[in-house]
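Notebook p. 47: complex prediction with pyridoxal-5'-phosphate.
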Amino acid sequence: MRGFSDRMGALRESPTRRIDAIRERLKRENRDIIVLSAGQPSIPPPPEIRAMMAEELAKESMDLYAYTPSQGIIELREAVAEDLKRLGSLDVKPDDIVITAGGQEAMFATLMTILNPGDEVILMDPTYFGYKPIIEYFGGKIKRLRLSMDDGFRINVESLKELVSDKTKAVIVVTPDNPTGSIIDEETAKAITDLAKDKDFWIISDEAYRTLIYEGNHVYMYKYAPDNVISLNTFSKDPGIPGWRLGFIYGPREVISRVKLAGEEMTYCPPSFAQRFVAVYLRSQVRLKHIRYVVEQYRAKRDAAVNAIKASLPEARFTVPKGSMFIFVDLANYIDDGEKFAEYAMEKYSVAIVPGSYFSEQYRAAVRVSFVWESTNRLVEGIRRLAEAAKAYRTR
Ligand SMILES: Cc1ncc(COP(=O)(O)O)c(C=O)c1O
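Predicted complex, structure tokens below:
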């Protein structure tokens, strides 16, 4: 009998891929599209590390081409442990770390490891859209905790408590968040981890943007509840190798050993050359200098974007992001439907943004603006086009 897995019904084309496909079509028509939709860095990794890699590639050796241990090379796991110690004062053993093929594999392997059909997972609204399809693929049930722009998308722990039931398997906390750029504070992190210990659920702490912080500090939730927190990370944003597919998870060893098995079945091992590259990067003299440089560049772009939005979209509502690469802009005073508007803005005004509805059930007239990908001039021009599009859309 021919046919397909029922579970595949949970999977859809990635929302940003849809925007990318329209953009590709317009590009083929020679349209100059300003890309405010990309969630990837615009600054390549440090030249010193790239030069080192070029030398290694020239060697007559299989080292960079061979399979690696499925948990990742020990050199990289040690470098990650040192990095977590240096930046977060965490004591994580290399055995409590598993390297993955990007953040996406980290998410899939973790949810594969912990979820049974019918388990409940609490997701913030808004938050990163990548979790929903995977949770549904594994038969999990999503409960959304609504966060409000009015109080900076702060997680209200009392409201979270109301959503927790005896079926709650995990709460997912993305900080700094995509798309809002909000970061959790120590007090909230502590209250959520206390709740996790009390009610015995996992916290999936997504730290994809942990080093891209413009104000404040990253809070490592793991330090409050090392037995409950599974922390997901990617090297896609820092040092900026999204196409090389590398990330890592740290957490309780009973989780790590199982995630390792999941990864083994999916990819067998993460890419060898990327592992070597990042191990050298994390231990290098240039690592901290590079982050400082990147944060400085992105902060300047963020500020330019904030000023441009204030000037050209006076009725837009947003909070200034403290981290990540995005501004989540509520255009409810201009438009009614972010998804239709995103297509309109691209087709008519040649500017690409991501609709807010991909991240949120409540902010349906919002859009996510990425401020890192384009040059500052093009970023400001893109926001000018966005404003023109919003005003034209309103009076259509
Ligand atoms: C919050 C968050 N988590 C995870 C990921 C996935 O990481 P990767 O691109 O390495 O698969 C992303 C990607 O944009 C992200 O924004």
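Notes: Residues 39, 102-104, 128, 130, 174, 178, 206, 208, 234, 236, 242, 247 surround pyridoxal-5'-phosphate (CB under 6 Å). The CA atoms of residues 157 and 191 lie 7 Å apart.
Next step: compare against the earlier run before touching the bench.
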